[in-house]
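Minutes, methods subgroup
Present: GH (chair), OT, SY

1. OT presented the first of two proteins processed in the latest run. Sequence and structure tokens recorded below as shown on screen.
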Amino acid sequence: MAGQGATIAGIWAAALLLWLAFLLFYDGIRRPLRREEIDAFLATLGPRMAETGNDAARLRAFLEADDGREFVMVNLVGTRAGPVTDPDSGETREGSEWLRRYSDPFVRGLIARGGHPLFVGRKVGGYIDAWNTPDDPGWSLVGTMRYRSRRDLIRMASDPAFRAAHPAKLLGIATTFSFPTQRQIAFYASPRVTMGLLLGLLAALAHIAVLTTG
């Protein structure tokens, strides 16, 4: 009986340790960005921000306000219609295929850093309710992406593998905008809860197996 009790205790201890390890991976250390990290990252962008019509000062303000916590990026995307030819390689693909060549490595890199898509959907109708907004430029997709931290955002943007896939984004997207948010209300179980329940279920099944075979 003592051996059985030790085995059961070990099962639950292992489940707890695995859950804590997952929380450490999923939430990270939560250290706000340092100014030197921000300066170094922005220096790597060079003129790219201005060339795409973006404001480096706005990005800097977001990074300097870092609280070390997760955030969700909201993305609206209008894909290029029809075949699009890469002017450098001469390769021709549908705009949606070019976008996939960018989004697949992006999502893999996001998951490797504790982030993940929350929701991705395609547009099925025009604006139903719009006040004082420009005409629909041709949105086709909306996606929300969870980032573990702003540090992970700049690490992804600095990753050579990510930068290598970036030209496919320009070939696949006609128009887009993104802005960061932080959750106020959500009616879903976060991966923290889901993983805890899954590990608890596995531990309970192992506990029962020990009792029935002991």
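2. SY then presented the second protein from the same run.
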Amino acid sequence: MNGFDKIKQRILEDAQQEAERIIQSAEEKAREIKEAKANEAGKLKKRLTEQNMEAAREHKRRMLVSAQLEMKKKVLAAKRDMIEAVFRGVIERISGMADDQYREVIASMLLNAPLQGDEEVVFSVYDQYRLDQGFLDYVNEQLKKQGRKGQLRLAPDRGQFKAGFVLRGHEVEINSSFEAIVRALRIEMEPQVAEMLFGELA
């Protein structure tokens, strides 16, 4: 083998060795990359699992909080309805009194009202048959005994409230309907009513 052939042979051998080295290096690199990716994938999976668990826990917590809020709203609404029923029931019971008892209550209210005695009185449409001018004539007699004018007169119109009356006169209107009275009393009495119903202050 001449020198030229020896050089060729050497080149081929070196190339073969370099190729094997490159292949080995590439295989090692591939293994390293595979292992790194496997580790990374494992870490990512673990992280995702932890994140999913945390997200699931957070979702559950939010659902519980939402359910608790909804429950509180419903309980509160039920309590409000019960309190409303109490105050509405007062009006119903008063307006449902026997006629003589009811007239006695209204007469007492008129006699104790800050009136001069010549006002116009608006009664409820529901009291059309038990509160009339004849009833006012009786009240006027009592007013005269108190030293007042005793000239109350029945208004031509009737009020759309459940019970009680409205006084008109001297550029002033006094709403003594039971709805208005209960509304005014409710501000003061609702906490007491709530305590009686639920053992707590509203």
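Chair's summary of item 2: The helical segments are 3-95, 99-111, 133-145, 178-198.
Next meeting: continue with the remaining queue.
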